[in-house]
């Protein structure tokens, strides 16, 4: 085999970057746990009554004709309640009464594994924790211990520490004072498998909505349409269900989430995680170039593409 043949085969073996359709903005209308459903329609109405006005705010973009899609997340990962056939009609009725149209309904378990593809593991593999200044890399990797921080932790207690001054944790890049965050990514359960944390799954969810998760260059997050009655079991529902046949694309150049204030702490952890995820540079350039071609300006930093409003309950 000559050099030309070798070059051709190596290039052909590189993963092909699959393109996706994009909206300008993906608006998350809510994130509900099963206990919220258990509390009934009035509980849902309280949560959704103030959301509609923020959809209009989030829809304001540089684009002349903004493409906006809406989504709603339901937790079926940490707990289960009733069946989709019983609770989803209630959710959709309440949403309609509150002036909301849900284009896509997502199950939180899909952020761990989407149609057989381990999304959480794909994202974890791209974590590159920022090393604190002056360290020698001896601290265990986040993928080994399941914890990710935005700085230098307080040294572990030891006899030597008891004889010296206590040292506080320090945020990397702190302005005047530190805001130190230590995020649990996963815990281990009895069978040795990982139980992904809410914060990590929420970080995966943001990357899904930004169209940034690929498996060997292949787009893997594909909503599926649903028509008719909902099923009797949550795992019979698609990972992401497209409820509106005329919905704009699920992935978007920017995301905007309207959430109860109880999610503030979780989303701080999400931003800590996203700030230490290294996505494929070719994919990042591809998306920025497409956005620029549509007169849509998006920041280079991932966390700057993510917007929020937190509402009191």
Automatic annotation (TrEMBL):
Q: Which InterPro entries match?
A: SCO2522-like
Q: Read off the NCBIfam families from this record.
A: SCO2522_fam
Can you name this protein? SCO2522 family protein
Source organism (scientific name): Kibdelosporangium philippinense
């Amino acid at each position: 085999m000559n050099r030309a043949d070798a070059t051709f085969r190596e290039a052909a073996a590189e993963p092909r970057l699959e393109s996706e359709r994009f909206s300008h903005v993906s608006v998350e209308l809510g994130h509900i746990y099963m206990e919220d459903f258990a509390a009934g329609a009035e509980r849902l109405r309280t949560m959704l009554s103030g959301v509609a006005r923020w959809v209009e705010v989030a829809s304001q973009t540089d684009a002349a004709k903004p493409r906006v899609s809406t989504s709603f997340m339901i937790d079926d990962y940490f707990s289960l309640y009733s069946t989709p056939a019983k609770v989803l009609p209630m959710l959709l009725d309440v949403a309609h009464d509150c002036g909301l149209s849900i284009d896509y309904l997502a199950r939180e378990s899909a952020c761990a594994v989407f149609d057989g593809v381990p999304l959480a593991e794909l994202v974890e593999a791209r974590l590159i924790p920022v090393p604190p200044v002056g360290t020698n890399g001896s601290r265990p990797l986040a993928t080994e211990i399941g914890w990710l921080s935005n700085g230098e932790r307080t040294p572990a207690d030891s006899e030597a520490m008891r004889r010296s001054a206590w040292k506080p944790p320090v945020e990397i890049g702190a302005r005047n004072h530190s805001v130190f965050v230590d995020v649990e990514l996963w815990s281990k359960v009895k069978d040795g498998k990982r139980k992904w944390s809410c914060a990590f799954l929420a970080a995966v969810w943001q990357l899904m909505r930004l169209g940034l998760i690929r498996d060997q260059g292949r787009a893997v997050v594909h909503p599926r349409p649903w028509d008719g009655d909902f099923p009797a079991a949550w795992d019979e529902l698609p990972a992401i269900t497209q409820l509106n046949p005329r919905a704009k694309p699920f992935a978007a150049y920017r995301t905007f989430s309207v959430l109860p204030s109880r999610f503030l702490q979780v989303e701080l952890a999400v931003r800590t995680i996203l700030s230490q995820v290294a996505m494929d540079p070719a994919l990042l350039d591809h998306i920025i170039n497409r956005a620029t071609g549509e007169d849509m300006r998006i920041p280079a930093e991932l966390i700057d593409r993510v917007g929020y409003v937190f509402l009191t309950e």
